[in-house]
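Input structure tokens:
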């Protein structure tokens, strides 16, 4: 297996010290920010013109080994493969959230709610574009007919 190394580009600031919601909620109460490392600050230029962004981060507070079969709430008890759901207990526990970009202040991005513990490293930030990222024929996932 090939080993891959990533550099953190900053940290997520949230009110969550534990008990993170299972999904990011845009209207979650509290202070939510992405703090990009100073040496990468020029990389956020233009982000203030984007309404939403993807944030990729390690789910570094997930305890226990990856499970290849999981019981997702929405499958009515039927087990499904981990790659067919969003469980954080994965071979590579990488979190992905779409957040609203509210304001950019230097190297800090004020965002809507995100499902990450305070201090979680940020792997990447990418703009969300309606024309590229929204798929009109997307379904609701296995078990949601």
């Amino acid at each position: 297996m090939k080993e891959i190394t990533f550099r953190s580009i900053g940290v997520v600031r949230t009110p969550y010290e534990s008990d993170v919601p299972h999904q990011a909620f845009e209207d979650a109460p509290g202070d939510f920010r992405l703090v990009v490392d100073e040496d990468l600050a020029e990389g956020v230029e233009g982000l203030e013109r984007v309404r939403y962004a993807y944030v990729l981060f390690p789910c570094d507070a997930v305890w226990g080994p990856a499970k290849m079969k999981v019981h997702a709430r929405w499958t009515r008890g039927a087990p499904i493969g981990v790659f067919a759901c969003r469980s954080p207990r994965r071979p590579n526990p990488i979190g992905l959230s779409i957040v609203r970009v509210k304001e950019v202040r230097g190297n800090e991005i004020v965002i809507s709610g995100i499902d990450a513990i305070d201090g979680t490293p940020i792997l990447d930030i990418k703009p969300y574009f309606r024309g590229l990222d929204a798929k009109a024929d997307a379904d609701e996932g296995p078990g949601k007919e």
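The domain at 10-129 is CATH 2.40.30.70 (Elongation Factor Tu (Ef-tu); domain 3). The beta strands are 10-13, 33-36, 52-58, 69-70, 80-81, 94-105, 108-111, 121-122, 124-127.
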